[in-house]
Write a structure and sequence with these properties.
Its cofactor is pyridoxal 5'-phosphate. InterPro entries: Aminotrans_3 (IPR005814), Aminotrans_3_PPA_site (IPR049704), Class-III_PLP-dep_AT (IPR050103), PyrdxlP-dep_Trfase (IPR015424), PyrdxlP-dep_Trfase_major (IPR015421), PyrdxlP-dep_Trfase_small (IPR015422). Keywords: Aminotransferase, Pyridoxal phosphate, Transferase. GO terms for molecular function: identical protein binding; pyridoxal phosphate binding; transaminase activity. This is Acetylornithine aminotransferase. It is a single chain. The chain folds into 2 domains: 260 residues, Type I PLP-dependent aspartate aminotransferase-like (Major domain) (Aspartate Aminotransferase, domain 2), CATH 3.40.640.10; 122 residues, Aspartate Aminotransferase, domain 1 (Alpha-Beta Complex). It is 39% helix and 14% strand. Helix 5 packs antiparallel against helix 12 and helix 13 runs parallel beside helix 15. By secondary structure, the chain is α/β, with parallel strands linked by helices. A hairpin with a 4-residue loop joins strand 2 and strand 3. The strands form 3 sheets. Strands 4-10-9-8-7-5-6 form a 7-stranded mixed beta sheet, sandwiched between helices. It is built from 15 helices and 15 strands.
């Protein structure tokens, strides 16, 4: 076991150096408004237009639940960089751990040698695994890369090619990850053919079956598992199928939690046919749903689990976690990458887990989740708003609110489609989100439906949650009044 006392003692010099470096950086960061204007012009002319943004201007500082822009604007951030800065922006303990590591070792390529932060991260993460069988770790850079690694490993270990994914799933924008991403066509538009061998089934979400929001979970689960059986009988034989990949809570698909019965059904089918169950916890993991990992609530055992986002609280790092009995079969060199498991990111990630434990983060998630749900449900009970609020769902601080649509997901949608309300405000979710931004809070939409998602910091304070709820309510009421 690695000694934290030894680590602290040997890093005393690094702390001193960090102080001097920070002072120099603060002096160097004094930028005039004319300089910012030049930078904005540079961005307008030279940034790749394939990147979309919800705000203009330059974000210059983040602290806790807030971010500041170059022109003085300050926002309450309920996006967390899409579920990344779970412990708040520039968390002092996490940033200090990274800064100290910068003064010791920045890069140690994984094919050359192990490094101490990588091993300390394993030491800290082992006790929080959702199942004791998850004991083999490979750290990479991004969620998409971790997905790619899991698909490659599944094919290698089973000797089979095909992968089954979920309708509404999001797993990334690289080619293998795009093939199993089914949330929006924009992510793969004009890039086909994608990786072959990807098949999808419906996720138990009432929209997928065009059923009312109050449809029993048992019925949704039954229909989806039936479609899985049908897929294995009609399109991809079990002996040709390497794995099923699933998010325990759909992210880009609308913030929909998978029922326990559905996840149990997937596990049963995988066990029956020798397929692997890959659980993507990139967005739902690391306390976001109230437990360290969303899969914990079901008790279902993953064969592989993918993590990223909150793992490093902003420092780029992802991971594929599996069983040694599986990964011991891989030939050396099967996985790797130049920056895989970067030392600075690993140091930050190791400290993230210390903060979780010492600051009682999960306890705060439970309290703030109740506060947020209570406020959203009060809006749903308001007679003037109720006709336009279809669903409030989620777990912990991964919460979605779905509004009615005037036309459905496309101009050709019929009045028989679930969720269509003739007098509903057009594009309600995006309009609400835009008004929230105008009022001083960053918030995002998600899915092809009218869904706004809440992803506040897991250590958000009561007053900030109250402020965010007030801004959101004002935005909703204004959009409804405007029609």
């Amino acid at each position: 076991m690695l000694s934290r006392i030894a680590v602290r003692n040997t890093s005393q010099l690094a702390r001193t150096n960090f102080t001097h470096v920070s002072a120099r950086c603060m002096t160097a960061s004094a930028v005039s408004q004319s300089d910012y204007q030049h930078l904005r012009t540079l961005g307008a002319n030279h940034l790749n237009k394939g990147v979309g943004r919800i705000t203009d201007g330059i974000m210059v500082k983040g602290e806790g639940s807030y971010v500041k822009y170059d022109d003085g604007r300050k926002y309450l951030d309920f996006t967390c960089g899409i579920g990344v800065t779970n412990l708040g922006h520039a968390n002092k303990r996490v940033s200090r751990a990274a800064a100290e590591q910068c003064m010791k070792l920045v890069h140690s390529q994984c094919s050359i040698a192990m490094h101490e932060p990588y091993l300390r991260l394993i030491q800290n993460i082992l006790p929080v695994m959702p199942h004791k069988s998850l004991d083999s770790f490979f750290f990479w850079n991004s969620g998409s890369e971790a997905v790619e690694a899991s698909l490659k490993m599944a094919r290698t270990l089973t000797g089979r090619q095909n992968i089954i994914c979920m309708q509404g799933a999001y797993h990334g924008r690289t080619y293998g990850a795009m093939a199993v991403t089914k949330s929006k066509t924009i992510y793969s538009q004009n890039t086909h053919p994608l990786m072959p061998g990807a098949f999808s089934i419906p996720f138990p979400y009432w929209h997928n079956m065009n059923l009312p929001p109050d449809t029993p979970v048992s019925k949704l689960t039954e229909q989806c598992l039936y479609q899985l059986d049908l897929l294995l009988a009609q399109q991809t034989h079990p002996k040709d199928t390497a794995a099923i990949i699933v998010e325990p809570v759909l992210g880009e698909g609308g913030y929909v939690a998978a029922p326990k019965e559905f996840l149990e059904g997937l596990r049963r089918v995988c066990d029956q046919h020798g397929m692997l169950l890959i659980v993507d916890e990139v967005q739902s993991g690391y306390g976001r749903t109230g437990t360290m990992f969303a899969i914990e609530e079901s008790g279902v055992r993953p064969d592989m689990m993918i993590i990223a986002k909150g793992l490093g609280n902003g420092f780029p790092i992802s991971g594929v976690i599996s069983r040694r009995e599986l990964t011991d079969k891989l030939a050396p060199g099967t996985v790797g990458g130049t920056y895989a498991g970067n030392a600075v990111s690993c140091a930050a990630a190791a400290e993230v887990l210390e903060v979780f434990k010492e600051d009682k983060i999960l306890e705060n998630v439970a309290v703030r989740s109740k506060q947020l749900f209570k406020h959203l449900e009060s809006l749903q009970q308001d007679p003037t708003l109720a006709p336009y609020i279809l669903d409030i769902r989620g777990r912990g601080l991964m919460i979605g609110i779905e509004f009615a649509s005037r036309t459905g997901i496309a101009p050709t949608s019929t009045q028989h489609e679930v969720g269509i309300v003739a007098d509903a405000p057009e594009k309600m979710a995006s309009r609400v989100a835009k008004k929230c931004i105008e009022k001083g809070m960053l918030i995002l939409t998600t899915s092809v439906y009218e869904v706004v998602r809440f992803i506040p910091p897991l250590n958000v304070k009561e007053d900030d949650m109250k402020k965010g709820c007030k801004i959101f309510e004002e935005a909703v009421r204004e959009v409804v009044r405007e029609g």
